[in-house]
């Protein structure tokens, strides 16, 4: 990992040597190319693999007041079926009467199967304590959908309702900066800090964006779940950060996943 980081730094340095002769757009394109090469170098040893391995152990460990594992957790394809499950989430679950994403569904399984009080997750920082365990479980589950197609069932009325709520949230402007999700992700060919921003209104952009999260963030050395990603988007908009597993985060996920339906699942992704 250290050698790969050094290679990236050297590549960035080579770009910097030519800063006086390159136009800003050419410099940005070159930097983007080098970042892409860095991601490619890391792809064979994505650090998410280690997080997923921890998640697999947690899946099979007896925990909670019921001293049970998660091996009978139903993520939508039947008890214990993980392969391809996250590619079909969020979805409407009749047993809870709710549309749930992967994380809120895992919370249901932890509560019903293991007797774990998941309210504690709202009191825990990202990457710490019970939240770190949730992140590991997510990494394990999404790895089992890598290479599948996004296949969110939009037939239930509850899913259609959540899609419309998610669309409303996506375009809602507010906060100190008067931003919305669409401010960054509502136009084609947009970029910030040398990072390409997919147009999440359209199929191509939504498939690329939704299909590559959850992901490992190289810049801070952490695995981020989709809930974490959405939370940070709100933080950057200077909005109040949403409650973990709240309806607005699930609605946004439905909107993104439905727009990306049919696209490839490339999880866990690798981000700058």
Describe this structure in words.
48% of the residues lie in helices and 8% in strands. β3 and β4 (195-197) form a beta hairpin. Residues 5-9 and 14-20 have low confidence and may be disordered. α9 crosses α10. The protein has 272 residues and is mainly α. It has 3 domains: 2-43; 48-143, Cytochrome Bc1 Complex, Chain D, domain 2, CATH 1.10.760; 157-271, Cytochrome Bc1 Complex, Chain D, domain 2. It has a 3-stranded mixed β-sheet. The protein has 10 helices and 7 strands. The longest helix is centred in the first third of the chain and has 20 residues, at 24-43.
How do the helices and strands follow one another from N- to C-terminus? HHHEEHHHHEEHEEHHE
The CATH topology name of the largest domain reads Cytochrome Bc1 Complex, Chain D, domain 2
Major β-sheet annotation: 3 strands, mixed
**CATH superfamily placement of the largest domain:** Cytochrome c-like domain
Fraction of residues in H or I helices: 40-55%
How much of the sequence lies in strands comes to 5-15%
Multimeric state: single chain
**Global mean pLDDT:** 88
Calculate Rg over CA atoms. 19 Å
Which outline best applies?
A: globular
């Amino acid at each position: 990992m250290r050698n790969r980081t050094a290679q990236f730094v050297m590549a960035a340095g080579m770009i910097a040597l030519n800063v006086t002769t390159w136009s800003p757009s050419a410099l940005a394109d070159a930097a983007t190319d080098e970042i892409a090469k860095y991601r490619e170098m890391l792809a064979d040893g994505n650090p998410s693999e280690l997080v997923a391995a921890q998640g697999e152990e947690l899946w099979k460990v007896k925990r909670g007041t019921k001293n049970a594992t998660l091996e009978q957790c139903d993520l939508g394809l039947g008890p214990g079926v993980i392969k391809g499950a996250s590619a079909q989430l969020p979805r409407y679950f009749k047993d809870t009467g709710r549309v749930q994403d992967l994380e809120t569904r895992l919370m249901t399984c932890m509560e019903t199967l293991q007797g774990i009080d998941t309210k504690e997750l709202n009191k825990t920082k990202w990457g710490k304590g019970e939240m770190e365990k949730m992140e590991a479980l997510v990494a394990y589950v999404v790895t089992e959908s890598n290479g599948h197609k996004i296949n969110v069932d939009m037939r239930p009325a509850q899913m259609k309702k959540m899609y419309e709520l998610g669309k409303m949230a996506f375009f809602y402007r507010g906060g100190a900066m008067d931003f919305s999700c669409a401010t960054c992700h509502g136009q084609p060919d947009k970029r910030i800090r040398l990072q390409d921003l997919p147009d999440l209104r359209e199929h191509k952009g939504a498939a690329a964006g939704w299909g590559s999260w959850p992901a490992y963030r190289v810049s801070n050395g952490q695995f981020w779940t989709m809930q974490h990603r959405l939370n940070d988007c709100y933080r950057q908009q200077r909005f109040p950060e949403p409650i973990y597993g709240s309806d607005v985060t699930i609605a946004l996920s439905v909107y993104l996943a439905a727009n990306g339906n049919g696209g490839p699942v490339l999880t866990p992704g690798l981000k700058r």
